[in-house]
Design a protein that fits this description.
With 468 residues, the chain is α+β, with helices and mostly antiparallel strands. Among the domains are: 4-117, no CATH class; 130-206, GMP Synthetase, Chain A, domain 3 (2-Layer Sandwich), CATH 3.30.300; 229-271, no CATH class; 274-339, no CATH class. It is built from 14 helices and twelve strands. The strands form three sheets. It has a five-stranded mixed β-barrel with strand order 1-2-5-3-4. The protein has a four-stranded antiparallel sheet with strand order 9-10-11-12. Strand 3 (77-81) and strand 4 form a beta hairpin. It is extended and about 95 Å long. The N and C termini lie far apart (95 Å).
Length: 468
């Protein structure tokens, strides 16, 4: 969706972010403000508001007076008043909405913080500004090395040059107070520029650098959130979240700011729930609260000593039992209240989502068991017999694909002379077969062994004879 800021040009050419009115992310920069008054004209005789909003690197914004009455629009690069020298920034908001934003952030027009705009930036100003921006990344790497050499417990997160390249601001984070007087001397000697050190918090660091959160969206602090409120672990307890610091912490290392978004809704819903420490007195025994479901309004209770059997009742029934206990009345049991929750649900449509198991691919496939006399493809075997392979006719190798397996009752012969074959043989004494055993168990004859062409010591009589 195109924003109106991009369409404030003439002859179809936008003056804003130069994206021709096709803003993909619905925001041209960090912490942007949608100018919904851009299409409205001022009444006759009323002058436009003479302050504008200017954005710098990583979402840093300030308000300036347009004392020269320059015709400024969103996206213009201007030269503003600095200390010392001048700075280069981009105009992000003009008109009456600037007055609303200054009132929201409690910035007065007559204060010293509101400086003035010198002029629109020339090409020479832009060239000096871009060259200074190119020096920031290698300077940050070198600055971190110098801080480590001096053994200072601090982290330099970002460096920002002024528009005229006369001053560099070093943003750092530290948990304790740091004495960086020697570090400033090293920086001035190394980088040959004026140095300014500015400490920021961990949340401000994440807001300046930006990133993607665990929800898959851009960080709230770098897009729209400017009010950083304290977040406690009780916010996670009220919402029944597991107190896992790795999941509850954001990119800044602190608890996520989004834990406070729905906290008020949870607190309003918990007002209808009874206290977890209150026990339900029944004739069967006292019941203790085990679990609560805020969305369904259900509570699970279990008798003392029977912790595996849980009974789910509504908050209305739980409050009714507690009221009766305060009057001195004791309920028979919880089964009567839990049985009322069982209702037959009529399925109006066929849901096939849960039919397939998610673990169906984890189990190995079982091979089908076949009988020993059953053949796989009898038709294919008959076809192979009718069309013998030509390569097998000329080869003397056995046609069996499997290697012949050794058997215990088969005599093996080695490729040795006849005199040496009988030296290492051990006498084997086999028990004689009893009467009738030979008829029951037929003896299996050994399979024919393939002939070895390279063996010259084998005899011709060793080839197996065919059965008559």
């Amino acid at each position: 969706m195109a924003c109106n800021n991009c369409g404030t040009g003439t002859n179809g050419i936008p003056k804003g972010c130069k994206s021709n009115g096709t803003c993909a992310s619905d925001s041209c920069n960090k912490l942007t403000v949608f100018d919904w008054l851009s299409n409205m004209t001022l009444p006759s005789g009323q002058e436009p508001f003479n302050c504008v909003e200017v954005r710098y690197k990583n979402g840093r914004k300030h308000y300036y007076k347009n004392t020269e009455n320059l015709t400024l629009s969103t996206g213009d690069i201007v030269a503003t008043e600095g200390s010392p020298g001048h700075d280069i920034g981009m105009v992000t908001l003009t008109g009456e909405l600037v007055k609303v934003q200054m009132k929201k952030k409690k910035v007065k027009i007559d204060s010293e913080d509101v400086k003035k705009i010198y002029r629109k930036a020339s090409q020479k100003d832009i060239d000096i500004w871009t060259k200074a921006r190119e020096r920031e990344e290698p300077m940050k790497v070198r600055a971190r090395q110098l801080a480590i050499e001096l053994k200072l417990k601090m982290k330099i997160s970002d460096i920002e040059f002024q528009g005229d390249a006369s001053k560099a601001t070093f943003y750092y984070t530290a948990e304790e107070r740091v004495d960086f007087r020697q570090l400033i001397k090293e920086f001035a000697k190394e980088f040959s520029t004026r140095i300014e050190m500015r400490q920021i918090g961990f949340r401000q660091e994440a807001a300046r650098l930006g990133g993607i959160g665990s929800c898959g969206r851009e960080l709230c602090c770098s897009t729209w959130l400017t009010d950083f409120r304290s977040v406690s672990t009780s916010a996670a307890r009220y919402q029944q979240l597991s107190l896992n610091p790795q999941k509850l912490a954001g990119q800044c290392g602190k608890l996520k700011c989004c834990l406070n978004y729905e906290l008020d809704s949870y607190l309003d819903a918990l007002k209808h729930f009874p206290d977890k420490n209150v026990k339900l007195k029944t004739k069967k025994g006292n019941a203790v609260s085990q679990k609560t479901d805020i969305f369904k309004g259900m509570i699970w209770y279990a008798y003392e000593g029977e912790w595996t059997n849980w009974f789910m009742i509504t908050t209305k029934d739980a409050n009714e039992i507690i009221a009766q206990n305060k009057k001195g009345n004791i309920v028979d049991n919880l089964e009567d209240y839990a049985s009322e929750l069982i209702e037959e649900v009529t399925v109006e449509f066929e849901n096939v989502v849960g039919q397939d198991s998610l673990t169906r691919f984890d189990k190995p496939k079982q091979k089908k068991s076949r009988k020993p006399h059953q053949k796989k493809n009898p038709q294919n075997r008959t076809d192979n017999k009718e069309k013998p392979n030509k390569k097998r006719e000329h080869s003397n190798k056995p046609q069996n694909k499997r290697r012949p397996q050794k058997r215990t009752d088969e005599k093996t012969t080695e490729n040795k002379p006849a005199g040496q074959q009988n030296r290492n043989k051990k006498p084997t004494h086999k028990p004689k077969a009893q009467n009738g055993d030979a008829s029951k168990k037929p003896q299996h004859k050994p399979r024919p062994r393939p002939q070895n062409k390279n063996n010259n010591n084998t005899k011709k009589d060793d080839s197996p004879q065919k059965d008559a």
